[in-house]
């Protein structure tokens, strides 16, 4: 299998990576959450506070605080039911229901799972799985594992200075059953949106996370009792009450040697699907991303972005945005035909762009310098936004301005490029695109760079969605769009950039659905 060809088709010609006769077997769909069996259980509080504005720092969080934190990061937050006209009987209706969480997920399938290494007084120290279905922690492995995890991260973050570490994994089958090989793109974006939510919630809980995209995969999977074929780690995030300092530690470590330090564990979980199909292309690509030795870890330099001969439109200062974070989370959803053509002024656009990019700064294992420029950026096609000429722009956060790429109304082109016309772009004045490196940093990060770039795009996406919600708007993340057409609009190919995800943003009518909060 030619991995480079597969990635090219996955990104630019995704109809070629899914069989033309692919049919989704909804009757044999997996659960959107993992349910372990026969593990020690530790219940979390159900009395979730409806505000988290007044959190005060404490030496070590208690179990209540961790429970509230996990619910706001990835807990079941809402139940919804939507009615559709029946395909067989015009006078009857069919209903679809599901559980929602605060981060978005393609198709509501949530392929990511969350594990937590915790050192709390009220719990035995060890590795836990966050059981979303029952809002509880299940113990996988007991014991202090600071040294093991620190080694698996290349000794660049000391776990002895942290009260724990979140590990984000992906269960491949959970969305492969619907999207086939296209699920690989969604898995990175979904994991990124979850990490983006975790970073935002951490600010309100006064936690300091540091995101590690590079780690010894086999060692982390071994720690969790995973075989790496059906589920594998995507990110490790040490969390402390103080800033996690990056350390340049000498010496090398290999996964083969490290796994010898702790015994195997065997677990069982419920799989609702009777038939789990193989996904050989994704397995082969995933295998190519694995890191066996810390010597393979890399850091990326910041790129000075120069924009010459571009008309620059200075944006006004943003307005004060609501600080009611919980209200913002609860009101976030993805409108479809609910968008209306309500005007958006320059101050609202400026607030959306500046808040999204400023709050995106985060500690990670890739940056060589502090406050390094983001590797993903925001472009947008705007129509009748204040006095800004209709056209395609790039947002420059350094100068808080728009750089004009092309003038014109691109709504027709963008609408024609959608594979599923579930959003009327003529009702949306702002259509944003998150853009990244065309080579996905393959020279520096090899094939792991593709999933890392999608995770960073997902993190920025979540910031955009939360900011839009705080402004009384909402956005709808879309992957079914013409990437080649968008790259042409923004003249990205010659800049060695490409579009990753499309996000129409605007005001909207109330959605016609039955929805209720789940917060104890």
From TrEMBL:
Record Pfam families: Nitroreductase
GO molecular function, one term: oxidoreductase activity
Nitroreductase domain residues: 383-506
Domain of life: Bacteria
Annotated CDD domains: McbC_SagB-like_oxidoreductase (cd02142)
InterPro entries membership: Bacteriocin_Proc_Enz (IPR052544), Nitroreductase (IPR029479), Nitroreductase-like (IPR000415), SagB-type_dehydrogenase (IPR020051)
NCBIfam families referenced in this protein's UniProt entry, alphabetically: antibiot_sagB
Descriptive protein name: SagB/ThcOx family dehydrogenase
Species for this entry: Guptibacillus hwajinpoensis
Classification of source organism: Bacteria, Bacillati, Bacillota, Bacilli, Bacillales
